[in-house]
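Q: Predict the bound structure with FE3-S4 cluster.
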Amino acid sequence: MKYIYIKTWGCQMNEYDSSMIANLLQKEKKYLLTSSIEQADILILNTCSIREKAQEKLFHQLGRWKKIKDDNPKIIIAVGGCVATQEGKKIFKRANYVDIIFGTQTLHKLPNMISKIENNTNRIIDISFPKLEKFKYVSKPIKTKYTENVSIMEGCNKHCSFCIVPYTRGHELSRPCYDILYEISNLAKQGVREINLLGQNVNAYKGLTVNGKICRFSELIRLVAKINGIDRIRFITSHPIEFTDDIIEVYKDTPKLVSFLHLPVQSGSNKILKLMKRLYTVEDYKLIIKKLKLVRPNIQISSDFIVGFPGESDQDFQQTIDLIEDINFDMSFSFIYSRRPKTPAAKMKDNISLQEKQKRLYILQNRINIQTMLWSRKMFGSTQSILVEGISNKNTTELFGRTENNRIVTFKGSPNMIGQFINLKINKIHTYSLKGELI
Ligand code: SAH
Ligand code: F3S
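A: Predicted complex:
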C-alpha cells in the first residue's frame, strides 16, 4: 500500500477536484490518503492562480518538498491545478525534481501517470483540455461529509477583464444532467443531506437530459430537490448577467433552496463594471435583488468585491460602499486587484498606490463586518434549523453545524445528531459564529 498526500489551494472547485483525485487513486486499492506528509509516497499539489504571487507560492512549497525528496528520492511529486495549467513546462525548468504536471482537466489521468513514473518513465506533463472527460470517473463518489460539493460545469466564457479563470479552466462546459443527478443520488444514499452545486457560472448551466434535450439551471435545481434525503441546496457561483427570471421562480416554489445567495458584484461603479467587462450595470444588479426579495423577503446576499481596479477613483470606490449599504450585503469576500498575465486588464494602467488600495480594502471590509454583525444579531433568540456536521474543533464536548445562512453554530448535543437537521435556539452571537441550545 502506498500513501498519497494532497495539498489544495484555492476555491471549492479545486477542493472538489482534489476529492476526485483522492477517490480515483483510492479506487485503485494500491493507494491510501494520508494527512501526514512524513508517511507519504506521493505528494500532490493542487494549485490556484486567481491572484498574484501564485507562482512564488508554488516554488516556495516545492522547495520544501525538495528537501523531503532529497532524503527519499523515491517520493513522487505531482503538481496540478491552475498554476500548473498556466505555467506548464516552466515548472520542470525551475524544479527539475517534479515528476508530474497535470491540468485542471486531466486529473483523471493521474493514476496512469503515477504508475508510469513508478515504472521508471521520465517525468510527464499533460495540461490538455479534454472536454469533461474527468467526470466520467466520478460517478460513484465517496461521501466525506454530510454536506457535499458537486461540480455541474467547468470553465468560463465570460472573460471579465481581470480574471485568469477562462485561461486555466477552459470554456464553459456543462455536465450532463443525468450524471449530476446520479452522483447526488449516490451521495444521498450514503447519508448526505445538503448539496452545493459548483461552477464558475452555475446559472449558465445547460446540460443534456437522457432524451437529448437541454436542462437549464432552474430545472436542475428542481430535479435535485426531488432526490430523497437531500433537504438543502446551495450553489456557487452565479453571475448577474444570467440570473434570469426562471431562476427567481425557483426561489418561489423550492423551499429546499436556501435563502442565502452569493452573487458577486465586484464594484458599485458603472464605469468600473464596464472596464471589468462584467456586462451589467449597478441598476441591473439591484433589479435582480429586488425581484428576489419579492419572492423571498428574508434572503441574505453576499458578494465578491475588487478594490483598486485600474482607473477606480475615490468616487467610484464610494459608489461601491453605497451599494454595500444599499443591498445590506452579509459576509462577503473582498480583494485588492491583482494583475494577471494574459488578461486584458493587465494592459491597463494601474494608477492607484498600494497604500490607497489597502486603505480602500480596510474601509470596505470594516463596513461589511459591521453589517455581518448586524445580520447575526438579528438571529439572537431565533429558532434555526441546522445541519449537524460533526464535533466542534474548538471544544470537543460540543457539536457544530450550519444554519441556512451559512453561520456556524456550536451547541451541546449528542453524537447521534450528526448528519441530521435539528432546531436550535440561538443564545449567543459572534460576528461569524453563533451558539445555540436544543429546543
Ligand atoms: N465566477 C465568479 C468568480 C470566480 S473568481 C464570478 O462570476 O464572479 C472569485 C473571485 O476572485 C472573483 O469574484 C473576484 O472578486 C476575485 N478575483 C478574480 N480575479 C481577480 C484579480 N485579478 N484580482 C483580484 N481579485 C480577483
Ligand atoms: Fe472570472 Fe468573470 Fe468568469 S470573474 S470566472 S471570468 S465570470
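A: The first strand starts at residue 2 and ends at 8.
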